């Protein structure tokens, strides 16, 4: 019989008490495990199981926090997460609500960088076949960067010093923090609307990986890729590599270097022009000197000194050529004549008329005019035609004999 003083808990009371214990004692904890059964419904919340070799726990990352997670969650990923335990009272299931996570062994931003780099590479955004040629002599350059930073001053100073005739337009944007990636991407798109712009420089000065992160965002990478104007990426220091560096047509190690890569140096151009002018003058002088020497040689030649004698000499040579040609033609004609007569002699030997001339004749059976070679082919009464050396006879056969 149950003692009436014993408190009997309802299921809800049990769950409420456990929920209170969990949320009081396991608030803002760190937990490590492997992600499995990952799913993200239309709400944007991310549900998964966090497990180790012996146990597992349900976990949820609400939409507001998942949007701040730079890298893409995947099954099998080992993570370290921060969150709080709670109990879902309806089902009596407890779970950890995560508000921050990072991959174990590698920073979250580094993983996000590698994931996006791999994705865009597969899509061909880094292919060299899409790289546009940087113009040698741009007349108008647009710079997408912070309007107040040192980087923009450095770039303007370098460009103005090297090529003072170049027009520069600065598209001032936020280069770090909330909204920076949208402003950078939008500025690149707007700069492309200006048909006079020959070259774009997109970048900023140095900073932490978090500061430089807008240049690792997909929206910026796609704007650079879609730009019809050649783009130089100039982000941070020489050791800093961003997604924009891989997508751009050319990477500059620093903003100042971008200015040097963007335009030619006026002093260097003048020096090269001077060298070219010197080479051209040398070539022209040599050409004129060669022609002058050749002319002098010609004027000293016998042809110019004794032109009449030279002409007579050529006339004698021409006469010799004509005599030689005539002799060759006559010799050749005589040879052809002898060959013709030899052929005629050979034809006369085999001419059947010569045989008839010696008294022989040919007989043909009429009316078919078949040549007769055997008396058995005729009989008395047949008509035959006899061919003599001179003329023909038509005869009637009276009899035949052996």
Layout of strands and helices, then pairs:
Layout: H1 11-25, E1 29-39, E2 46-51, E3 56-61, H2 63-66, E4 78-88, E5 93-103, H3 108-123, E6 140-145, H4 150-162, E7 167-172, H5 180-191, E8 199-204, H6 218-226, E9 231-235, H7 243-247, E10 250-251, H8 255-262, H9 266-299, H10 302-305, H11 307-349, H12 352-357, E11 362-365, E12 370-371, E13 383-387, E14 392-396
Parallel strand pairs: 3-5, 6-7, 6-8, 8-9, 9-10
Antiparallel strand pairs: 1-2, 1-4, 2-3, 4-5, 11-12, 11-13, 13-14
Helix pairs in contact: 4-8, 5-6
Topology, number of strands: 14
- Average pLDDT, rounded to a whole number, is 91
Individual helix count = 12
What is the rounded Rg? 54 Å
Order of SSEs: HEEEHEEHEHEHEHEHEHHHHHEEEE
């Amino acid at each position: 019989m149950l003692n009436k003083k014993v408190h009997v808990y309802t299921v809800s009371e049990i769950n409420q008490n456990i929920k209170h214990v969990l949320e009081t004692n396991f608030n803002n904890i760190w937990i490590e495990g492997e992600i499995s059964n990952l799913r993200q419904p239309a709400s944007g919340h991310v549900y998964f199981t966090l497990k180790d070799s012996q146990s597992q726990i349900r976990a949820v990352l609400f939409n507001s926090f998942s949007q701040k997670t730079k890298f893409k969650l995947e099954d099998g990923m080992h993570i370290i997460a921060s969150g709080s335990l709670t109990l879902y009272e309806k089902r009596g299931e407890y779970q950890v609500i995560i508000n921050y996570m990072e991959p174990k062994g590698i920073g979250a931003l580094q993983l996000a960088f590698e994931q996006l780099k791999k994705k865009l590479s597969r899509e061909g955004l880094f292919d060299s076949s899409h790289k546009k040629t940087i113009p040698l002599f741009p007349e108008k350059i647009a710079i997408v960067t912070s309007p107040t930073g040192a980087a923009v001053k450095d770039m303007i100073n370098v460009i103005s010093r090297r090529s003072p005739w170049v027009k520069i337009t600065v598209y001032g944007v936020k280069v770090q923090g909330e909204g920076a990636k949208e402003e950078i991407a939008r500025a690149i798109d707007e700069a492309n609307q200006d048909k006079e712009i020959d070259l774009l420089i997109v970048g900023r000065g140095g900073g932490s990986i978090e500061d430089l992160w807008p240049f690792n965002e997909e929206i910026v990478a796609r704007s650079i890729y879609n730009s019809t104007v050649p783009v130089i990426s100039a982000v941070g220091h020489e050791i800093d590599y961003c997604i924009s560096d891989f997508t751009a047509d050319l990477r500059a190690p620093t903003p100042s270097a971008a200015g040097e890569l963007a335009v030619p140096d006026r002093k260097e151009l003048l020096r090269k022009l001077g060298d070219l002018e010197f080479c051209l003058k040398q070539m022209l002088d040599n050409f004129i000197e060669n022609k002058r020497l050749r002319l002098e040689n010609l004027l000293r030649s016998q042809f110019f000194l004794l032109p009449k004698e030279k002409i007579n000499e050529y006339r004698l040579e021409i006469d010799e050529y004509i005599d030689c040609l005539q002799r060759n033609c006559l010799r050749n004609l005589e040879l052809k004549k002898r060959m013709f007569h030899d052929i005629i002699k050979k034809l006369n030997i085999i001419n059947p008329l010569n045989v008839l001339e010696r008294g022989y004749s040919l007989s043909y059976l009429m009316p078919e005019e078949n040549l007769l070679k055997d008396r058995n082919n005729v009989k008395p009464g047949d008509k035959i035609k006899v061919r003599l050396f001179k003329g023909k006879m038509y005869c009637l056969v009276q009899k035949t004999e052996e």
